[in-house]
Design goal:
heterodimer; A: 109 residues
Chain lengths: 109, 374
């Protein structure tokens, strides 16, 4: 029943039969919980596999459609650059601070 | 004199019940915790103040409470009861979420799925305690540690339990730094907590732009019930990553999410009137919520250990605890617990991967439960 409610099987139907479980006993609940967990896992596994494959897909695509350093829209939006610069500066500052602290600790010991 | 007596009978002093007083006290405790302990202040202050406002007894016929048709508070509460606010919050979350760490290490996505075991085991536990299946589903989602998702699903499946579920979800999110560390330490050895992970690889802009559209299609084809929450989450992320709609992304992640958070928190707080909130069901929901949260944390940690059986590059199992989607608090807790063992081990970036995967996972879990239980 759960499988019938995925988008893949509903695509061809005009109305979405989301009306659900008629049973409410524990055994059905256990099955629903197990199948629900499997569906969540399946969705995230497929997303994970897609993410893993994405760099390879893009490597093939880049032969036809090379990636430019700066997207066209970005040139007109200095705000986004400011936000990114702030994050980069914060990260650099954090690493330097950590490194100095480590050096100080090694001097002390 | 009679006028004064009649007036006194309409005041809060005359009509205040013990339940109202308890709820007002709870509201004050929320505000106190937010201010003094910094526990989720953006949520606990509006909820706390809302609880105080909602529990001032008003004379019958004045039509002031959340549940009085046509009252101002009922209009504010409509956004909660109709499930309008949660998707708007997801839009803001999407606009502020960086999926880079997840894209650079896709196997960590599975930890976000493993933590959802808390949702489904609690669903089963609630059934066992005698809740109806729709109520059990709404209670189970507390384990997703995602307030907007919990409110969205409760408004659809069990509107009568909405107040208790929302308060439980946000309370446990606020208590992430208290609940998670003991479970994480109990389930891991010192050697495991010392594991250092490889720094994440650089993710291209194109990957970040393609991801929201592709992930939306994949997840909602499998769980169409999640279309509203995930649609808004990934739409917000696309606004951010497309780099051509920075103004919209900026509004979504700042002004808009702030406005909706204020309205949501206050309306949820105001809905906790003593006569509807202080019930045996609410106590059971709080118990189940705590259990759900603990199981979700344990599920993530144990699944990371399980994955380590097969991986050459080991995962620090603490990172699994971030699979509950309380973003970014649970990732911060992972960093904190990891640094207690090794001050130079930086797990925050790694923990953000299961953390954002947990957001997607809990929305999918909500979609599945909604599809099955309506």
């Amino acid at each position: 029943m759960l499988l019938k409610q995925t988008g893949l099987t509903l695509l061809g139907q005009s109305d979405f039969p989301l009306g659900g479980s008629e049973s409410n006993n524990l055994a059905d609940g256990a099955v629903q919980a197990l199948v629900g967990l499997i569906i969540v896992f399946s969705a995230l596994i497929v997303i994970s596999l897609f993410i893993a494959a994405l760099p390879r897909i893009l490597a093939i695509l880049s032969a036809v459609w090379p990636e430019v350093d700066e997207p066209a829209g970005n040139t007109g939006h200095p705000d986004s650059l400011v936000a990114d610069d702030g994050a980069v500066l914060a990260a650099i500052g954090y690493v330097l601070h950590t490194e100095f602290q480590r050096q100080l600790e090694s001097h002390d010991s | 004199m009679e006028i004064l007596t009649d007036f006194f009978d309409t005041t809060g002093f005359a009509t205040l019940t013990l339940g109202n007083a308890i709820m007002i006290l709870i509201g004050i405790v929320f505000i106190f915790l937010a201010i003094t302990k910094d526990y989720e202040p953006l949520l606990l202050v509006p909820i706390g103040m809302g609880a105080i406002v909602g529990n001032i007894p008003v004379a019958a016929g004045m039509g002031l409470s959340v549940y009085d048709e046509g009252s101002v508070l009922s209009y504010l509460y409509f956004g909660v009861s109709a499930g309008v606010y949660p998707p708007l919050i997801f839009l803001g979350i999407g606009a502020m979420t960086d999926f880079s760490t997840m894209l650079s290490n896709p196997k960590l996505v599975l930890l976000g799925a493993a933590a959802q075991i808390g949702v489904f085991l609690t669903f089963f536990g609630a059934l066992w305690l005698g809740f109806q299946p729709n109520e059990a589903g709404a209670i189970g989602i507390i384990g997703g540690a995602d307030g907007p998702t919990a409110i969205f699903l409760a408004s659809k499946l069990a509107p009568g339990l909405l107040g208790a579920i929302a308060i439980a979800a946000y309370s446990y999110m606020a208590l992430v730094p208290v609940i998670q560390p003991p479970i994480m330490k109990l389930l891991t050895s010192r050697e495991e907590r010392l594991i250092r992970m490889k720094p994440p690889r650089k993710v291209s802009k194109r990957e970040k732009m393609i991801f929201p559209v592709a992930a939306f299609l994949i997840s909602t084809m499998i769980a169409p019930g999640a279309v509203v929450l995930l649609g808004m989450l990934f739409f917000g992320n696309l606004l951010k990553e497309s780099l051509v709609t920075e103004r919209l992304a900026q509004t979504a992640r700042t002004a808009m999410i702030d406005v909706v958070t204020i309205l949501l928190g206050f309306a949820v707080g105001a809905s906790t009137q003593a006569d509807t909130f202080l019930t045996r069901d609410s106590l059971q929901i709080f118990g189940l919520g705590a259990l759900s949260f603990a199981i979700a944390t344990a599920g993530g940690v144990l699944f990371a250990k399980f994955m380590n059986l097969f991986l050459t590059e080991k995962i620090n199992p603490l990172v699994g605890a971030a699979g509950v989607s309380a973003v970014p608090d649970s990732a911060r807790v992972v960093q904190m617990v990891g640094q207690q063992e090794d001050p130079h081990n930086f797990l925050l970036m790694h923990a953000m991967a299961p953390n954002v995967a947990g957001v997607v996972g809990s929305a999918i879990a909500a979609g599945v439960l909604w599809s099955v239980l309506t």
